[in-house]
Design goal:
The protein is an alpha/beta fold. Helices cover 49% and strands 17% of the residues. The chain has three domains: 3-98, no CATH class; 104-344, Endonuclease, Chain A (2-Layer Sandwich); 353-517, Endonuclease Chain A (Endonuclease, Chain A, 2-Layer Sandwich), CATH 3.30.870. It has 19 helices and 17 strands.
């Protein structure tokens, strides 16, 4: 038996046992709840009052526990309701699904990874002082990202914007072909087809040339798209690979936390990020929901250092393999105007970086904020930021899909239209198809392009990344592209939202209540 075959057998045994145990325990929890309800109806009336008091006390204890936990209040509400309705299942489900628990060893590893990440990205002084002199109004946002996300401010970085996957793909292929030292790929979705097969062909060739090639993909994002032994298949070709949060236990609290990032780094000098995954619909080789509109940026120069270190932190956490981050530092200094700040967001630190960046842009805008997002499933804080900006005279426009990829998410997105429209926010649905781009652009000065959707999954649960830029030429390109999307979209009016039946409004209210769990 070969080493690979032995590894596969061990891998399979480790995959199925935890899932089976979780299913057994959850079935037990459900049976306990059913038994409780049966006993409730069978007991004589003299005992019902006592049991009712015990039930209320237990429910209150769990509710108080949920309330005192750190986190988004909107996320707590459906758990509180579930606990009050089904005390046994509700409380145990919250403990199992809603809280991320780490072992002592994992906490130690996270601390070590974060320390070495910070040491690597701040190896050289950043451009914060230069930003203070040239764009003092931008400093608050940059300081937040520097202090709370460990994100340095860079100059000497060129930013090239891609308005669709078809324009990105040829450049990505050209850069991969030019790799000499290493290629790092980290994607939420990898789906074999024209796009991935072309990339993989280059990766295999580069491995033979001595290039260090590594791939991370999210197991949930790629479920049903790649074989269960996809990691082994890549390793046999010389491509070092791992999958994040292997889907072997859907009843784990880790199930909510996916690696939603899209990062490609070549030789430490060129980096890509944005909404584009490794699948054919992203370059419109196949069309599932009309035209797939997506965007990305290519960085060339010093700011690529942050993207490289982001990849290495995830690689180290999953593979438990230390690397000297400084060995992968950029060697190219690309002269360019403006400031660039790549950043990441993690669900493990109780710091909602992605949402903070968006709300800071809204609060600092004077003339306009244009937004594209595939999902608009937001909490009261984000609703407040959007409506306050519009009420303050800022031209706030949001572009959402005209063709949905998920019907429930599409319905939830539309449920927020009326409150935003009443405040003066303008909303457009992209009629050619599905818009997957996640970007903000404001006042011809700042923009963000990345992986962060305007929904609870991205803002609270997922590992994400993005690039904040100020006074770069790419900001104008982003603005023109969003305006082009608006020109191809239909504007939503209040009359369109108000012509709904009472039953439909009730259904929307229920969906909104449990939106944080989607």
């Amino acid at each position: 038996m070969s080493k690979t075959e032995r590894g596969r057998r061990v891998h399979k045994s480790k995959t199925h046992l935890p899932a089976a145990v979780s299913v057994i325990f959850y079935v037990i929890y459900l049976l306990l709840q059913v038994a409780f309800l049966v006993f409730w109806f069978l007991l004589s009336r003299e005992y019902i009052a006592n049991f009712y008091l015990i039930l209320e006390f237990l429910s209150l204890c769990v509710v108080l526990y949920i309330v005192r936990e750190d986190g988004n209040s909107s996320y707590k509400i459906p758990w509180i309701i579930l606990n009050l309705a089904l005390p046994i299942v509700g409380g145990l489900s919250y403990i199992m699904f809603a809280r991320v628990r780490f072992s002592r060893e994992e906490r130690r590893l996270l601390k070590d990874v974060n320390f070495r990440y910070a040491r690597a990205v701040f190896e050289k002084p950043d451009a914060m002082e230069q930003l203070r002199q040239e764009s003092p109004e931008m400093v608050r946002q940059a300081e937040y990202l520097r202090n709370r996300a460990g994100a340095p401010v860079y100059q000497d970085t060129q930013v090239r914007y891609f308005s669709c996957g078809e324009k990105l793909f040829p450049e990505l292929i050209a850069q991969l072909e030019a790799a000499q030292r290493f290629i790092f790929l980290e994607y939420f979705i990898v789906h074999p087809g024209y796009m991935w097969n072309k990339v993989e062909e280059i990766l295999v060739r580069k491995v033979k040339q001595g290039v260090d090639v590594r791939v991370i993909y999210d197991d949930m994002g790629s479920v049903g798209l790649v074989p269960h032994d996809f990691v082994d298949m890549l390793e046999e070709k010389g491509i070092r690979a791992c999958n994040f949060n292997r889907l072997n236990n859907i009843f784990s609290s880790r199930f909510n936390n996916r690696d939603h990032r899209k990062i490609c780094v070549i030789d430490g000098n060129v980096g890509f990020t944005g909404g584009i995954n490794m699948a054919d619909e992203y370059i419109n080789k196949v069309r599932r929901f009309g035209y797939w509109k997506d965007t990305a940026v290519m960085l060339r120069g010093q700011a690529v250092r942050s993207l490289t270190c982001m990849f290495l932190t995830m690689w180290e956490f999953v593979k438990k393999e230390k690397n000297d981050y400084l060995k992968f530092a950029p060697t190219l200094k690309a002269e360019a105007r403006g400031f660039v700040q790549p950043y990441m967001d993690s669900p493990l630190d109780n710091e909602r970086v992605g949402q903070a960046v968006y709300t800071n842009i809204l609060s600092g805008a004077h003339r306009y904020v244009y937004i594209t997002t595939p999902y608009l499933i937001i909490d009261d804080e984000m609703v407040g930021a959007l409506t306050l900006a519009a009420k303050s005279g800022v031209d706030v426009r949001i572009v959402t899909p005209g063709v949905p990829d998920k019907k429930v998410a599409y319905t939830l997105t539309r449920s927020y239209y009326e409150v935003l429209l009443r405040a003066g926010v303008r909303i457009f649905e992209y009629t050619p198809g599905f818009i997957h781009a996640k970007e903000f652009v404001a006042d011809d000065q700042v923009a963000v392009v990345g992986t962060v959707n305007l929904d609870y999954r991205s803002l609270c649960h997922h590992f994400e990344c993005a690039v904040w830029m100020a006074d770069t030429p790419a900001v104008a390109d982003i603005r023109e592209d969003v305006l082009d999307c608006i020109n191809q979209s239909r504007e939503i009016t209040l009359d369109m939202c108000r012509n709904k039946t009472i039953l439909w409004r009730v259904w929307l209210a229920v969906l909104r209540l449990f939106a944080p769990l989607f």
